[in-house]
Design brief:
Keywords: FAD, Flavoprotein, Glycerol metabolism, Oxidoreductase. The protein is of the alpha+beta class and 610 residues long. The protein is built from 20 helices and 22 strands.
Amino acid sequence: MAFSIKTREKSIETLKTEQLDLLIIGGGITGAGVALQASAAGMKTGLIEMQDFAEGTSSRSTKLVHGGIRYLKNFDVEVVADTVQERAVVQAIAPHIPKPDPMLLPIYDEPKATFNMFSVKVAMDLYDRLANVIGTKYENYTLTKEEVLEREPQLKSEGLQGGGVYLDFRNNDARLVIENIKRAAHDGGAMVSKVKAIGFIYDDGKISGVKAKDLLTDEEFDIKADVVINTTGPWSDKVRGLDEKEKMTPQMRPTKGVHLVVDSSKLYVPQPTYFDTGKHDGRMVFVVPREKKTYFGTTDTDYKGDYEHPTVTQEDVDYLLEIVNNRYPEAHVTIDDIEASWAGLRPLISENGGSDYNGGNNGKVSDQSFDQVIDIVEKYQQHSATRFDVENVLNHLEDSLSESKENPSAVSRGSLLERSEDGLLTLSGGKITDYRKMAEGALKEIQRILKDEFNKSFELIDSKTYPVSGGEIDAGNVEAELEALTKNGVEQGLTQEEAAYLAHLYGSNVSQLFEKIPETQAVEGLTLAETLGLHYALENEMTLTPADYLLRRTNHVLFMRDTLDTVKQGVIAEMTNYFGWSEQQKADYAQELDDLIAESDLTTLKEGAK
């Protein structure tokens, strides 16, 4: 099914002329999840996103579908159970996107360490039980200090006690968004990027639609809908503020996360690695290998700047370099080694109350109570305490707030679904792992509103089994199915590496690319495989700018810096032909891309350091 600049025009006409059942404001992962389920249920669904799909926050995560093992330090079992179970659901409906990638957790003997060798084994065993991986190749195991250093020789040996290895999943966050959006479009939804909500329409004091502006043409138009839902993440309060009939109390407290990318020859890790910062600040940092590169992060700082354009500061760089060079003292990573970077906002809710789809509370077990738990578990294992003794300690844990409200890392990572008096639904907070579950909760409320207030009945799908676009793959046999798809590409003339790259990027949709091989000529500056990918993105993924393609439909800007300068010329030239851009438009898009790359490269910070 085509999903391109041509279908965009048709979708905008639908938004202008038809009465929608549901209009979604925001095309990140939350809005995309709602759009998929609503469209599949047969609701007349529209979605508007003021930037590219996933551009605001959902392409700027740590790029993991993280299981949250750290919560087990606080015995927040419900949170971890929900997270790992939902992660398995996401992997089943988008099997070509989240991929298993076991995580190494080095354990250091230092103040305020999250785990020691005993507690990490207790946590990993419980984690495996919750994730249902006991007895599989992904079951956890521990490593001695020597085994950890053999695996990661650059790691700091001083204070290292050993390590644990447990199951986690890498993710392609922007691809997960676009595959949800494509499925919604396939099922009849009008999905449109570069359209901004600028106000609301009212009927008898109730919101009955949105005033919108097409940012490509500057045209303003009205969209009428029975239900309007705000899924704009960090922008949630700003969209709520457009509602003239309601007094808006801010509820979001965005924090900024930063990640930096270096070549794997500079900082080599064979698998994702997760450790305390060593700064005794209660935070942990990831170091992750990706496509011959290594990236690390994240920071967690309150943010009050430009939501559309969060940037990496010198302070962010200094913080992360200090941590990485402390943990990998032989690496000597400097700002000049950074090839790419990204900054993103987390849509955190400022209050600890509210409907938390993640489950669990936001409290923390005191250090004294934690020590009591460890002590009683040891005694139980030594048969010197009974099960009743263990339960008695667990039932009398001393709670305290997880951390001071002044610490942005402590803000609730839950989600909130609420409706204003004039009818605006807002679904905010949460994290990528929970997107489907959040959308499911919202759809039940939307279903109820449409029935009770508009006399419209819809049967919701089972979203646990409804695949995203490209997800028509047996989730229990992903590796073999992707290998078979890869073989198809090789048989038609691609190299093994090229065919595998495309198969993993597009999943079951890759067959559409391979069918085009006989009739496709490689564009100057691009390989045949890259040409196939670009053509597919233009025709089927609403790719409107070079940045859309090189940063969000693919990872060229972030993890393919070595070939980016060559590839971008071919991409710009082919997009100019496709869209019929004038020389001025071509120059403007090229400049926009160069500015984005320079920002990612930290060019200004590097020049300031010289």
